[in-house]
Design a protein that fits this description.
The strands form six sheets. A four-stranded mixed sheet has the order 20-21-1-22. The chain has a four-stranded mixed sheet with strand order 2-13-15-14, with helices on one face. Strands 4-5-7-6 form a four-stranded mixed sheet, with helices on one face. It folds into two domains: 3-20 and 213-406, Enolpyruvate transferase domain (UDP-n-acetylglucosamine1-carboxyvinyl-transferase, Chain); 22-211, Enolpyruvate transferase domain (UDP-n-acetylglucosamine1-carboxyvinyl-transferase, Chain, Alpha-beta prism), CATH 3.65.10. The chain is α/β, with parallel strands linked by helices. Helices cover 30% and strands 24% of the residues. The longest helix has 14 residues, at 22-35. The radius of gyration is 21 Å and the shape is globular.
Length: 407
């Protein structure tokens, strides 16, 4: 289904309740399944989290996680320690093109029994769950943080805990710290220092309720809206200043576009008044690659040049996000240069109207391009792909007086 988006007002005002972070939610669901006794509040209503919940309660041999990359990584480790259980973990055609080899190799080095059903290094994979005796593992530090987090999440269930030695420069550090904090909030001890992660063994955790902060990645689209509007005041709940999420750097990055963030007790307010726009910006997003699409489209809408680096993980997401961004920005009239790990946007001319944006089965492509409707009407193809992380996205746009025309 295609949605045409338009917005004709200079000022954007409103208040929204954003769903819980799927990153926090999915980590807590693994911990809860391993140790019980946890209650989770403000759980994400995203497709990815629903897929995770279903997989963790499934009694079937084949578990299909569709497009959910986080679920694929976390569940690979989870099922590897489910003693006596056989699981075939599979996903969508795109998921079967996304590598899991480095994680599988790490688990195999710990004694896990995992084999490939079709192509070496890729899902589907067959996992024979067993009790792993290893207490240490080494892997490259610059791989996806989801591989590292997957190992961290099962570490406390091992007889002697787990020490993870990271070799080289660590990327996506905030996500590793998020995993560590989720474990600690659950009652599991661990540390991360000098490229060494230690997770202590834990037999059981005490009963407790753990709240999930709302998703900062989802907030990014409203930062973009605020930046592209002439004036804006948007309140978002539930957020906190001392966030675990790397994407909370949005509050600092978007100051360049005149968007100021006020932190209240359980919410943030984004405000923009008329101001000059920057001629160019440069950001290293190695710790927050999921907001690259949003920032690039914001810059396109403002006619601002940008250079975004640290984007090497974007090539193995739901799509090759660098190629997808280049394709769709150029449809709108922008000029983009990409490499394996950076994107450079030239200052844009007049934007083309009623361009149809392909979404490539990628929720972030749909949501990142939606704010451009403040400048020109835009059509989002396969618009409901947003349900992967943010099912209420379009209804929330309507609360901010966007016109959403369904085709």
């Amino acid at each position: 289904m295609k949605f045409k988006l338009k917005h004709s007002q200079e000022t954007v005002k409103g208040a929204l309740q954003i769903t819980g972070s799927k990153s926090e939610s999915n980590r807590l669901l693994i911990i809860e399944s391993l140790f019980k006794n946890l209650e989770i509040s403000n759980l994400s209503n995203s497709d990815d989290t629903q897929v995770m919940k279903k997989a963790l309660t499934s009694n079937e041999v084949e578990v299909d996680i569709h497009h959910a990359g986080t679920a694929m990584r976390f569940l690979t480790a989870y099922f590897a320690v489910q003693e006596g259980r056989e699981t075939v973990l599979t996903g969508s055609p795109r998921m079967q093109e996304r590598p899991v080899k480095l994680l599988v190799e790490a688990l195999r080095s710990m004694g896990a029994d995992i084999s490939y059903e079709r192509n070496e290094g890729y899902p589907p994979i067959r996992i024979q769950g067993k009790k792993l005796q290893a207490n240490a593992v080494s892997l490259q530090a610059n791989i996806s943080s989801q591989y590292i987090s997957a190992l961290m999440l099962i570490g406390a269930s091992l007889p002697e805990g787990l020490t993870i030695n990271l070799e080289g420069q660590v990327t996506s550090t905030p996500y590793i710290l998020m995993t560590l904090e989720m474990l600690q909030r659950s009652g599991i001890q661990g540390s991360f220092e000098d490229n060494i992660i230690r997770i202590e063994a834990c037999a059981a955790v005490s009963p407790k309720t753990i709240p999930v902060e709302s998703d900062w990645s989802s907030a990014s689209y409203f930062y973009s809206i605020a930046a592209l509007a002439e004036e804006a005041e948007i309140r978002l709940s539930n957020y906190r200043k001392e966030s675990l999420q790397g994407d909370s750097c949005l509050a600092t990055i978007y100051q360049q576009f005149g968007v100021e963030t006020s932190f209240e007790e359980n919410s943030i307010t984004l405000k923009k008044s008329k101001c000059s726009k920057p001629a160019s910006i440069s950001e290293d997003l190695r710790n927050s690659p999921d907001i690259a699409q949003t920032i690039a489209v914001t810059c396109l809408g403002l006619g601002t040049a940008c250079k975004l680096t640290g984007l090497h993980t974007l090539k193995i997401k739901e799509t090759d996000r660098l190629v997808a961004l280049k394709n769709e920005i150029e449809k709108l009239g922008g000029e983009v240069v990409i490499s394996d790990e950076h994107l450079e946007l030239k200052p844009s001319a007049i934007l083309k109207e009623n361009v149809e944006i392909e979404t490539y089965n990628d929720h972030r492509m749909a949501m990142a391009f939606a704010p451009i409707a403040l400048k020109v009407p835009v059509i989002i193809a396969d618009a409901m792909v947003v349900s992967k992380s943010y099912p209420d996205f379009y209804s929330d746009l309507e609360k901010l007086n966007f016109e959403v025309i369904k085709d």
